[in-house]
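Exercise 7. Given the encoded structure of a 122-residue chain, write a plausible sequence.
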């Protein structure tokens, strides 16, 4: 009977630790994954037909579409020399008169990085 007690105690301790390990391994509310941040909309001042210039005032093209990429990043499609080029909306600043946008990149940089544009959703 004395042997049964240590075996029972060992078994109980083992099961108790296993149960504790399962409980402590579940994520707490503080460490649980947070939902992804809500997608931000493009600047409502960006509009199709708006002229896009670089910081020197040289014409780059005009906005043909405004929307978001598949991951929710605000984006625009700009017609550059008749070719659609997708750009993140963050590279554009709308002028105070609201008639044009200034790009923080040059036409050459846009053309060098250009891939055929997919229309943004939205």
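Solution.
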């Amino acid at each position: 009977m004395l042997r049964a007690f240590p075996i029972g105690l060992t078994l109980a301790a083992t099961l108790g630790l296993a149960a504790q390990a399962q409980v402590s391994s579940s994520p707490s509310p503080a460490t649980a994954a947070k939902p992804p941040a809500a997608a931000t909309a493009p600047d409502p001042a960006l509009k199709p037909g708006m002229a896009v210039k670089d910081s020197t005032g040289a014409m780059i093209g005009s906005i043909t579409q405004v929307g978001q990429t598949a991951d929710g990043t605000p984006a625009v499609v700009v017609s550059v020399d008749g070719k659609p080029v997708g750009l993140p909306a963050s590279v554009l600043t709308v002028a105070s008169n609201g008639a044009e946008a200034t790009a923080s990149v040059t036409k050459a940089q846009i053309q060098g990085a250009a891939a055929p544009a997919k229309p943004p959703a939205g």
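Remark. Residues 51-113 form a domain with the SH3 type barrels. fold (CATH 2.30.30). Students should compare their own answers with the one above.
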